[in-house]
């Protein structure tokens, strides 16, 4: 994890003495969950206690319901309907006046529609996976306190979206793609090599190749250059 630019309090977020924030990690990549656990899970140092993990929507709802954490670190793209579905099914827990469960999106995606979608679904913030461990701990404490936390660039997406009264246009071609395929599409269109995509997304190069093939087929494109032009025309890069 590298610098993200989220404001921090200088002591990793544990500004309330003995207070501990209980957290659930929701991400379909086990290696990434392990890395986050290593960064934030030393409770005596960070005052963050990881009380559960989940790799898909159904697991997430089961774990969140059982543990009722203060904060859920939520990936946007998950098997079973994505982060938006987790938020939809957690609406009652988010609205609990006594012990609300709050959500902080933690994703590799920095696409405007992903950010806006989860914020509209009820998440209290959105940071990308380039965030440092110290900044992430600070963000967790701030979200637990009811604050909104965004990576600086992503905050603009939210302000622009909620300042506008116009609903975003429906793109039937884009809607044919799964969330993961959209993520691969943007990275390839931005010039990432397959190996770089695989590393960023914690998947294999073969899986990246499969996603690219599916995108080309669904959009009726022939090659990477056409894919890049298609994405640029829709301002996805």
TrEMBL record:
The keyword DNA-binding applies. Gene3D superfamilies: 3.40.50.2300. Residues 22-144 form the Response regulatory domain. Keywords: DNA-binding, Phosphoprotein, Transcription, Transcription regulation. The modification 4-aspartylphosphate is found at residue 75. The keyword Plastid does not apply. It comes from the Bacteria. InterPro entries: CheY-like_superfamily, NreC/VraR/RcsB-like_REC, Sig_transdc_resp-reg_C-effctor, Sig_transdc_resp-reg_receiver, Tscrpt_reg_LuxR_C, WalR-like. Pfam families: GerE, Response_reg. Residues 170-235 form the HTH luxR-type domain. This is Response regulator transcription factor. The lineage of its organism: Bacteria, Bacillati, Actinomycetota, Actinomycetes, Kitasatosporales.
């Amino acid at each position: 994890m590298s610098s993200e630019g989220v404001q921090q309090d200088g002591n990793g977020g544990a500004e309330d003495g003995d207070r501990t924030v209980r957290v659930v990690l929701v991400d379909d990549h086990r290696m990434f969950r392990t890395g986050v656990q290593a960064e934030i899970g030393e409770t005596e140092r960070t005052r963050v206690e990881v009380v559960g993990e989940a790799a898909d929507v159904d697991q997430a709802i089961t774990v969140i319901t059982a543990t009722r954490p203060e904060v859920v670190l939520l990936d946007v793209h998950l098997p079973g309907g994505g982060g938006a579905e987790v938020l939809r099914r957690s609406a009652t827990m988010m609205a609990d006046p006594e012990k609300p469960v709050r959500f902080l999106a933690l994703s590799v995606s920095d696409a405007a529609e992903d950010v806006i979608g989860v914020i509209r679904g009820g998440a209290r913030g959105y940071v990308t996976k380039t965030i440092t461990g110290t900044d992430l701990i600070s963000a967790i404490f701030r979200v637990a306190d009811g604050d909104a936390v965004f990576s600086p660039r992503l905050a603009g997406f939210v302000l622009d979206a909620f300042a506008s009264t116009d609903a975003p246009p429906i793109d039937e071609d884009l809607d044919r793609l799964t969330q993961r395929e959209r993520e691969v599409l943007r990275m390839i269109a931005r010039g990432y090599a397959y190996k770089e995509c695989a590393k960023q997304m914690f998947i294999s190069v073969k899986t990246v190749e499969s996603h690219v093939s599916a995108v080309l087929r669904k959009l009726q494109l022939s090659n990477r250059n056409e894919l890049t032009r298609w994405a640029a025309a829709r301002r996805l890069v």
